[in-house]
Amino acid sequence: MSLPHAILTALLEKPSSGLELTRRFDRSIGYFWSATHQQIYRELGKLEADGLIRVLPSEQPARGQKKSYEVLPAGRTELARWTSASQDPKPHRDALLLRLRAAAVVGTAGLEADLRRHLELHERQLAEYEEIEKRDFPPGRDGTDVRLRHLVLRAGIDLETFWTQWLRRAVADVAELPDGGPT
Amino acid sequence: MSLPHAILTALLEKPSSGLELTRRFDRSIGYFWSATHQQIYRELGKLEADGLIRVLPSEQPARGQKKSYEVLPAGRTELARWTSASQDPKPHRDALLLRLRAAAVVGTAGLEADLRRHLELHERQLAEYEEIEKRDFPPGRDGTDVRLRHLVLRAGIDLETFWTQWLRRAVADVAELPDGGPT
DNA sequence: CGTTATTATGCAACTAATTGCATAAACCGT
DNA sequence: ACGGTTTATGCAATTAGTTGCATAATAACG
Hints:
Largest interface: A-B, 75 and 75 residues
Distance between the termini of chain A: 41 Å
Order of helices and strands of chain A: HEHHEEHHHH
Number of domains of chain A: 2
Oligomer: homodimer
């Protein structure tokens, strides 16, 4: 399981409160590991109980009041262990591809509009990634950490590029098919 | 949720027993919607209780004995409804990208070997897809259902192509970095 | 000041998915 | 007929993830 390690990574990059983490999971980190604020609060509790993180000493906690966490040495060790350990890739699940397959047996009615919508979403995401690349990774020699983060962003860009291309083709294909199918 | 719809699709393509479904989820359908046999048996029970599928009349059931299902009209209707309804894409989770990001803060030790392993897995999957394409989709004009299934396979091929290319780059990049990082 | 909106934290219930195990029949060699 | 392997179905417990709601502090508005 990876959520605790995602949180450890985020906290090592910068100590944060639950809500700050939630916001970062809506941007950068969340682009390849999403999480809701409830997951995050729950996991912060566990990580603290396990002695991998702690509340920043300066803060005094009270319900509904900001509480920032930082990673303890044990947390860094655990993250390094997890990062270097080999892991089997989890199986994918893609509802859109499944729907296309279903459309092959029950007809394509209503599909095209949603394909277009997905295309738009992926185009928007791609534009956002390219914006980030232009802003955060100008050309030139860089340190290890920057090169690795750039590599991750490249994966995002290339994935979105693939989806936009595939969806354009899918929209065109579905548009020229007889709508009904064997419904 | 999509597992019931994946099963309905599979059963419409061909009525099957739980184990036959499990096998098909290890191949074709499972390439974009994986499921274990326990999930499948559980879901078959629910679908039957809901009146969307039924046991083939010819078979008489007994524990440990084959039991094939077919889709009822209500099931086909539900699948058509789901297929045409618009859905928001679920957020991705990719542990490998997360690990790269973690490596940017705790060092790349041990990563390269696993990147190579993933590369090999994706190369193998790509080869398998291309084999299927050659076998099942020879060039030429085809019916709606065949074109849609081919479109789905193309997504698989293009995705694996992306991953093999990206991983080759990642392996090369990581190989030439100083191993330690800020561990 | 008092009321409303926003920020921030968190619990509880539910749904989905995974893991490990149990059972039973069929098939296969000896 | 027996013991071992494979095929097939299924239960139970656990873990992971989602959804809906509750609470408290703070800011902002008149």
